[in-house]
Design goal:
Blueprint: E1 6-11, H1 17-21, H2 26-34, E2 39-41, E3 51-56, H3 58-71, H4 79-102, H5 106-139, E4 146-148, H6 154-174, E5 179-183, H7 197-208, E6 212-215, E7 218-222, H8 226-242
Parallel strand pairs: 4-5
Antiparallel strand pairs: 1-3, 2-3, 5-7, 6-7
């Protein structure tokens, strides 16, 4: 059964529409690549309209909408604030480490180093919380057979994919849903426009022996047993021979 496309309007202030477009249209291209079937229409530069229109399959439009709200700082989650909190704590820890290094008194030096390490540990915890909130916000509505890694740092993304692979390996097989779609992002906003998460996830999949293909800018991991594939191929060739 074919699902009809939908159209959604997001009210985006004129001064934020450039973020949706991105340099040379990079952000729109990224969104349309990551959510196949979605078209993003932004008002022309000389227009006063605030209507950013999304058209496409319902689920893809829903996730693209959340992505745009996040890009513009209009999303309901406060992940960006938590990231900011973590960075502020890292900055404080760095200042304490520098102060400790410059301190002559051993007692004061030890005190400052202790504070610095505690602050750094607090920053790491804040970063973990930010990763949880970002992943939750971007994956609301997805089942175990699909995940979106946008907004995560490379190490966070690899850890989450590792956990998901362990979780869904048996789960998907038992439900006969033999694939996992991973949206890694094209890297349009990374340094030198080179994807950082995608190659690390691919390396993880190769190491774990998970066959996968790249489809519409996404990684589709197969959980089908080799024995099952062989049976399917045998049945296919038998049909050809009997045709």
């Amino acid at each position: 059964m074919t699902v009809a496309n939908v159209s959604v309007v997001i009210k985006v202030p004129k001064n934020l529409q450039g973020k949706v477009i991105g340099r040379g249209g990079a952000t729109i291209k990224d969104i349309e690549s990551d959510y196949p079937g979605v078209d993003v229409v932004v008002p022309k530069r000389d227009s006063n309209s605030e209507d950013v229109i999304l058209k496409g399959p319902p689920d893809a439009v829903k996730h693209a909408q959340r992505r745009i709200l996040d890009i513009c700082g209009m999303s309901e989650d406060n992940s960006s604030q938590v990231r900011g909190k973590a960075q502020a704590l890292f900055d404080e820890a760095d200042k304490l480490f520098k102060a400790a290094k410059a301190e002559n008194s051993k007692q004061e030096k030890d005190r400052l180093y202790k504070l610095a390490h505690a602050k750094k540990a607090e920053a790491h915890e804040a970063n973990k919380e930010a990763a949880k909130q970002i992943f939750k916000a971007k994956n609301s509505g997805y089942g175990n057979d699909q995940m979106d890694l946008h907004g995560l740092q490379v190490k966070e993304a690899v850890e989450i994919v590792t956990q998901r692979l362990a979780l869904v390996d048996a789960d998907l097989r038992s439900k006969k849903l033999l694939s996992l779609t991973i949206i890694t992002g094209a890297g349009n906003h990374s340094e030198n426009h080179r994807a950082k998460i995608k190659p690390e996830v691919e390396a993880l999949l190769r190491k774990g022996g998970y066959p996968y293909i790249e489809e519409d800018g996404q990684l589709v991991v197969s959980f089908a047993d080799a024995s099952t594939l062989v049976k399917v191929l045998i049945m296919y060739f038998l049909k050809l021979m009997n045709a």
